[in-house]
Amino acid sequence: MKVILLGCGWLGQQLLPVLQQEGHQLLLTRQSEAGLAELPQGVPAQVLSLPLSLPHSSTVLQQFQQAVVICAITPGWRKQSGAGYLDSLNSLVRLMQAAESLACIHFSSTGAYSGLSGEVDEQSQLLLTDAKAQLLYQGEQLLQQALPTCTLRLGGLFGPGRHPGNFLRNDVLTDPDAPVNMVHSSDVIEAVRVILQQQAWPGLYNLCCPDFVSRKQFYAKARALLQRNALNDGNTTDSQRRVVAKRIQQQLPFQYRYPSALQALEDRS
After folding, report:
1. Whole-angstrom Cα distance, residue 173 to residue 5?
2. For residues 30 and 12, what is the distance between their CA atoms, to the nearest angstrom?
3. DSSP letter string over 241-269?
4. Are 240 and 174 in contact (CB under 8 A)?
5. Residue 50's CATH number
6. Domain total for the chain?
7. Whole-angstrom Cα distance, residue 127 to residue 114?
8. Which PANTHER family match (predicted)?
9. Cα Rg for the chain, rounded, in angstroms?
10. Which site among 58, 66, 156, 165 is 20 to 30 Å from 232 CA-CA?
């Protein structure tokens, strides 16, 4: 299958060897020449900076024709409040439609549930008055309405080179008793492998370690593994939520490698 890894960053580079092993025809893209230089040698790669100028070149149209596009563009919420995200996705939609791309796998975020409390799942009504939830939902809709799209709402990502013991900037933990909604990168990679194998589009799935673990349990262990200072309990807020992420196991031949986020902390790969 022809697969384009759009925005091949931290997660995409972990996904790459699995896709190679599965025998897919790959193309990697980054936003700049500097980003391109960070990619492994020997795999076709090129700069693709969104939003694209029109008209599309015949080369790009041919590359995207009948391809499955894995869209790993990040909203950039923390730094820019998502500025430019929807413009980039709109540009991508125009390209995929013009090229008659086969399908899309879109990395979204459980941030789509921002403002909600309690248990949430793929059928929960989103609070679209919340700016973050609105942005992520609009991005999902752009792709889902354009072509067959499997949307993955990812929990907080961790894995090789991204240790949660380094996530907190001070020694105070808010909502210590609330659920931690995290997912290890290896489970995201396995989900993508299964989705490609099953051609499971359209679809919408949460990806998040399904077992309950409190934020206090998780971050205490993460900090201890790095021999960092213990945390102090901070304020408790009203917006505590647990992301339920079992649908993907019920509908696809997928099993979490790490049902528990505590177990995933021990991963050394």
Report:
1. 35
2. 10
3. EEE---HHHHHSS---S-SSHHHHTT---
4. no
5. 3.40.50.720
6. 1
7. 7
8. NAD(P)-BINDING DOMAIN-CONTAINING PROTEIN-RELATED, PROTEIN YEEZ
9. 19
10. 156
Residue 125 is assigned to a structural domain of this protein: yes
Strand partners, 28: 5, 45
Do the domain assignments include residue 109? Answer: yes
Taking phi over 0 as left and psi of -120 to 50 as alpha, with beta for the rest, 260 belongs to beta
Q: What angle, rounded to 10 degrees, do the helices at 131-144 and 85-99 form?
A: 10
Q: Taking Cα atoms as reference points, which of 194, 152, 178 lies closest to residue 240?
A: 178
Q: How far apart are CA 234 and CA 175, in angstroms?
A: 7
Q: 172-199: string of b/e by CB count within 10 Å (b at 16+)?
A: ebebbebbbbbbbbbbbbbbbbebbeee
pLDDT digits (tens), the chain, 269 positions: 999 999 999 999 999 999 999 999 999 999 899 988 899 888 999 999 999 989 999 999 999 999 999 999 988 776 666 778 999 999 999 999 999 999 999 999 999 999 999 999 999 999 999 999 999 999 999 999 999 999 999 999 999 999 999 998 788 899 999 999 999 999 999 999 999 999 999 999 999 999 999 999 999 999 999 998 888 988 888 778 999 999 999 999 999 999 999 999 987 65
6 domain residue, yes or no: yes
